[in-house]
Design goal:
Elements (H helix, E strand, L loop, with lengths): L3 H18 L3 E4 L15 H12 L9 E3 L1 H7 L3 E6 L11 H15 L8 H4 L2 H7 L3 E5 L3 H13 L2 E6 L5 H8 L4 E4 L4 H15 L2 E2 L10 H9 L1 H11 L6 E5 L4 H14 L5 E7 L4 H8 L25 H10 L2 E5 L1 H12 L16 H11 L4 H7 L6 E6 L6 H8 L7
Parallel strand pairs: 3-11, 4-5, 4-7, 5-6, 8-9, 8-11, 9-10
Antiparallel strand pairs: 1-10, 2-3
Helix pairs in contact: 2-11, 4-7, 4-10, 7-8, 10-12, 11-12, 12-14, 15-16
Length: about 425
């Protein structure tokens, strides 16, 4: 039998082996521009409808779009903008936009109101009596579950949240603080999703999952539409500035697809290049794009990445249908790229605003920054077309949701490149 110290050493060696073998891979994709099916569900008008609901929720404010003007000058591009979602509803991440809108729509339909969802109407005494106490169930790597728990609490209902093995204790406790019945399972994310679906059925709850599969598409679609508020806030803040490159991180791809579809609708022929970013250890969208055979492809192997929010092994079918029609590049990258992004955003060029960004949040910015500043990545930089006229847009989708790991990376230099 192996001693505990030997087991630790074996694990460390395995992690070192994975770290050394991983690399940035950029796949140029040929999107099916001629089809454009489903994009009408992510129009500017739909975005305004979604934002109108969010505006009825106490505490709604647009999150800041940060112009890293001095970094742009240093790295030789026209502009770098980062949307900072750490301020969203006090929850340190963007995910509440999807769950809150979806649940608002579901309750509005159940009450047969025949109106656009309105938070104040859904929380009246009459509404609660008509609805009874409902239970919303979900699986999550952290941020989505926190959004579901918060939305359920705000609306006066219960929530059950399942989390995959390896989840940080802080993320679990943040969800429990919102009144959810939450626990960590002994399986990975995709199996945890199926556990949540089964549990919702057994307990008569409502599954609010941000990934779709055959027969389960309506709820994920509503969640994806909830993310349209992000896109609308961004273009309003940009005003006349037009981005040339839109970097979007993806787990199952729901947020990435929703924002990408919105930008396609909003900018038309002037739409920026859409670059989908995943970790090497969970790159299911990259593998699906690489296969290019019309089928969904899962990540083969044990999921592994510091980017916990992106550690998903099977793409959302609804999301892939959209990305297949509009994404220009798919990128699979090592953890050190995200770690670089966290450190640069946390210690900005003099005069730029500091952004506290977590592992998943800093992924896209880390990629863009490394392509621009590392000569050994110049071939990849040229491949995606970054140059002096580029205006780069990234989303910092979360703040430091695992503060212990944040400090290890930013203070102690963990996952250095």
């Amino acid at each position: 039998m192996l001693k505990s110290s030997q087991i630790v050493n074996l694990r460390a060696n395995r992690e070192k082996e994975l770290f050394m073998n991983e690399q940035i891979k950029v796949l140029a994709y040929q999107p099916k521009y001629s089809e454009r099916k489903g994009f009408e569900l992510f129009s500017e008008n739909q975005a305004k409808k979604v934002r109108a609901y969010h505006q009825t929720i106490p505490g709604y404010e647009p999150t800041p779009l940060i112009n890293l003007e001095n970094l742009s000058s240093k790295l030789g591009v026209k502009g770098i903008y980062v949307k900072d979602e750490s301020f969203r509803f006090g929850l340190n991440a963007f995910k509440s936009l999807g769950s809150s809108y979806c649940m608002g729509e579901l309750l509005t339909e159940k009450l047969d109101l025949n109106t656009a969802p309105d938070f104040s109407r859904l929380t009246t005494k009459e509404a609660r009596e008509a609805l009874g106490e409902m239970t919303f169930v979900t699986a999550t790597d952290g941020n989505h579950g926190r959004g579901v728990a918060w939305s359920a609490k705000m609306l006066g209902h219960k929530s059950i949240v399942l989390m995959p093995k390896g989840t940080a204790a802080e993320r679990l406790e943040n969800i429990r603080k919102l009144g959810a019945d939450a626990w960590i399972t002994d399986v990975e994310y995709d199996a945890t999703v199926q556990m949540a679906a089964k549990l919702a059925e057994e307990r008569g709850g409502v599954l609010v999952q941000d990934t779709a599969w055959a027969g389960y598409e309506s709820v994920p679609l509503k969640i994806m539409q909830g993310y349209l508020t992000l896109g609308l806030e961004i273009v309003e803040a940009l005003k006349d500035t037009k981005p040339t490159h839109l970097f979007l991180q993806a787990g199952v791809g729901s947020m990435a697809a929703a924002v990408a579809a919105f930008f396609v609708n909003y900018y038309g022929k002037e739409c920026p290049k859409i670059i989908i970013v995943e970790p090497n250890g969970a790159d299911c969208l990259y593998k699906t794009a690489e296969a290019a055979d019309g089928a969904i492809h899962a990540y083969d192997g044990e999921l592994h990445s510091i980017m916990a929010g992106l550690c998903c092994g099977i793409p959302c079918t609804v999301a892939w249908d959209l990305l297949d029609q509009c994404a220009d590049f798919f990128v699979s990258m090592p953890d050190w790229v995200a770690a670089d992004g966290m450190r640069i955003l946390g210690a900005p060029v003099l005069g730029d605003t500091r952004i506290i960004s977590g592992e998943s949040g800093a992924s896209c910015f880390g990629l863009a920054a490394d392509l621009l500043r590392k000569p050994e990545l110049s071939v990849l930089k040229d491949k995606v077309g970054l140059g002096e006229n580029s205006v780069i847009l990234c989303l910092s989708t979360e703040g430091a949701t695992d503060r212990e790991n944040y400090r290890k990376i930013v203070w102690e230099g963990a996952f250095a490149s």
